[in-house]
Amino acid sequence: MNLTILAIILGIVIIAYLAIFAMQRTTIKKVNVFKLRKEQLASLKVREELVEGRKLSLTGQSLKEYQNLERQFNDVKNNKFLKIDQQANLVLFEARGINFIKTRHELARLEAMVNETEQTISDVRKGLTELKKINEAHREAINDLKKKYDDLRKRLLAENFKFGPANAGLDKFLSQLEADYDEFTRLTEDGDHATASDIYEQLAMETTQMENMMADIPDLFDKVDRVYVEQLNELSQGHSDLVAQGYVFPNDTINQELNAIDDQRQQVLKLLSELKLKEVSEQNGYIERRIETLYDMMETEMTARQQVTKHADQLSSDLLRLREQNSTLAIELDRLGQSFQFNNREIERRRTLLEQINAAEEQVNHNDDLLESSEMSFSELQAKQEKLLAHVSEIEAQQIEIWDKISGLEKAQRSARQFGGQYQQDIENIKHAVERMNLPGLPASYLEYFFAVSNELERLAKSLQATLVNMDEVQRQLNIVSADIDTLKEKTDKIVDQANLTEQLLQYANRYRATNERVAAASEQARMFYERDYNFDKAMDVLGPALDSVEPGVYEKLVDAYMRRKTPLL
């Protein structure tokens, strides 16, 4: 038992020893890696790079930046490398003991020191590289800007006619650029690259601005100094020519507008001399719209003149046609007025339309007078002509409407007479057909309807024979008679069918009168309705059920058989 415990303790001790040994070996390896990284950093030729940086003849802010880089490296060389060595020895010393936590802490601190030193050296080298690049860029920029300003100066001198009043402003702007360039060159030569960078950024922006202005100004100046002048002269001459040709412009202020536009153009030239190109572009837009408005105004009048000529010919032709139509209409109204009664004031309407035609002709003549006396523009006359043309079209539509209305009167009268004669013949045919039936009599309601239709036909005949025929009334009566004739035919057909069926039912009932009291009584009652009251429908209603009581379905069979055999009455 004791031996077992002893063996376990011994095992634990061995394991702990091995762990401590492994930890120590690992720590030593890591420390050696950090020492190797430190040696590699120390071997870099940063000092030589700093010496090369001094040759840049740095001053001002650039010198301050360089000195800061040098201080950072000296701190590494004189302090941080030594501290790294000391920290490495401390870690190795702590690794001999068993305080693992402290050892790890000191190892982490060593790693941080190495990392920080690496970053510092990297920043120093990058800073030196950047200073070299700036130095090279500035020296290259000196040459580029020198060439660019020489070119701009040559172009400004050679093409000064293209820039007009902007010449002085551009020359002043370029002179300021050249002064700034001289300062930039001095700072670069002195090695103050940081301050030179600020000036260079401003120079680059203003140089681009100068180039853009020299690119844009020629077109802007050409518009203001040549294009607009030519357009204003063209508009002025065009206005004078058109006025001489008889053109009139409503509220003619064209000359005043031309002067106002030219004043605005002079203001734009002043803006151009001040290099206010954005305002110049905006003002040019306003000028162009004002000029375009004047062109449109003149174009409107020239186009209107063409339309006026076209409309004048059309109005002359239309009014002549309307007057001929009205005259023909008057003759036809006079002729038809001997036979027909007019119900829609056709004669008065025709006279009113003639007055409107006369008024339209007077308006045309008045407009022509105004045009000849230069009191009306072509565009105003065009508007009046178009209004007159619309009125002329309306007059013609009304005259055609009257003509269509009256031109059909005689045809309608003949047609009405034909229908009246046909309806009279229908009445006679109905009367003769009923008489041939030898019925005991006819129901009072039927006779009343028959005579009412006959009276309507008489009234229709009288209307057609009147001294002045009212065709509206004739047509109304004709429609009534037509509907009533159809109804009379239906009533006649129905009465004849009912009378014939009653006779057949009475004959069929004779088979059962001696043997069936109900049939006998119904037969007597039905005969009374048939012979005395002429109520054939009632007779069928009494006799039909009685026959069905002795012979079921016989009533319907008799009715169906009759309807199949019957022939049209008319």
Verbal overview:
- The chain has 570 residues and is mainly alpha-helical.
- The protein has 16 helices and no strands.
- The chain has helices at residues 2-43, 46-54, 60-95, 100-158, 166-190, 193-244, 254-273, 277-336, 346-372, 378-407, 409-436, 444-464, 471-509, 517-533, 536-550, 554-565.
- Helix 12 packs antiparallel against helix 13.
- The longest helix is centred in the middle third of the chain and has 60 residues, at 277-336.
- It is elongated, with a radius of gyration of 62 Å.
- The termini are far apart.
- 22% of the residues are buried.
Keywords:
86% helix, mainly alpha, single chain, 0% strand, 570 residues
Helix-strand sequence: HHHHHHHHHHHHHHHH
Contiguous helical run count: 16
What coarse outline follows from CA principal-axis ratios? Answer: elongated
Protein structure class: mainly alpha
DSSP strand tally: 0
* Alpha carbon gap, first and last residue: 148 Å
Helix fraction bin: over 70%
Over the alpha carbons, how many angstroms does the gyration radius reach?
62 Å
- Beta-strand level of the residues, as a percent range? under 5%
Biggest sheet: strands, sense, closure?
none
Mean pLDDT: 80
**Uncertain runs with pLDDT below 50, 5 residues or more?**
none
Protein topology:
Layout: H1 2-43, H2 46-54, H3 60-95, H4 100-158, H5 166-190, H6 193-244, H7 254-273, H8 277-336, H9 346-372, H10 378-407, H11 409-436, H12 444-464, H13 471-509, H14 517-533, H15 536-550, H16 554-565
Helix pairs in contact: 1-3, 1-4, 2-3, 2-4, 3-4, 4-5, 4-6, 5-6, 6-7, 6-8, 7-8, 8-9, 8-10, 9-10, 11-12, 11-13, 12-13, 13-14, 13-15, 13-16, 14-15
